[in-house]
Design the sequence.
């Protein structure tokens, strides 16, 4: 079992977002843990400085959510993403414009996030979120 500390962000008494530190491109970022997201998503603007534009593949799917009915999406094959001691190699993620989330975070004086950890990782690694202990646990079982 791998335990990773999380931060519970209070959205001015309008709900909560659990945040976790992730390592991508040899840098540490924060990401939202989203049990309602089917896939892990990275913010297009946040990753543009770290990837060659030719590595982003236009997706044939239009993504819904995040306040819109549809938005252009891309996919990116990550060589590695690390969440605590959990290291995942060769993960395909969606890449979308997450500016609405980061703009909302700016109004709360919260550092922008690089993306959303979604169900693809949460299910594959049997994630358990423990809110009282502010931890997320992963296992390979």
Sequence:
């Amino acid at each position: 079992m791998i335990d990773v500390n999380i931060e519970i962000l209070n959205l001015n008494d309008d709900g909560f977002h659990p945040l976790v530190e992730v390592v991508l491109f040899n840098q540490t970022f924060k990401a939202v843990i989203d049990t309602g997201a089917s896939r892990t998503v990275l913010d297009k603007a946040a990753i543009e400085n770290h990837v060659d534009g030719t590595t982003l593949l236009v997706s044939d799917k239009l993504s819904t959510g995040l306040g819109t009915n549809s938005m252009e999406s891309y996919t990116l094959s990550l060589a590695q993403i690390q969440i605590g001691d959990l290291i995942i190699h060769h993960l395909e993620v969606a890449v979308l414009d997450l500016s609405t989330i980061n703009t909302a975070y700016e109004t709360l004086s919260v550092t922008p996030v690089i993306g959303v950890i979604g169900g693809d990782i949460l299910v594959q690694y049997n994630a358990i979120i423990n809110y009282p202990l502010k931890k997320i646990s992963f296992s390979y079982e």
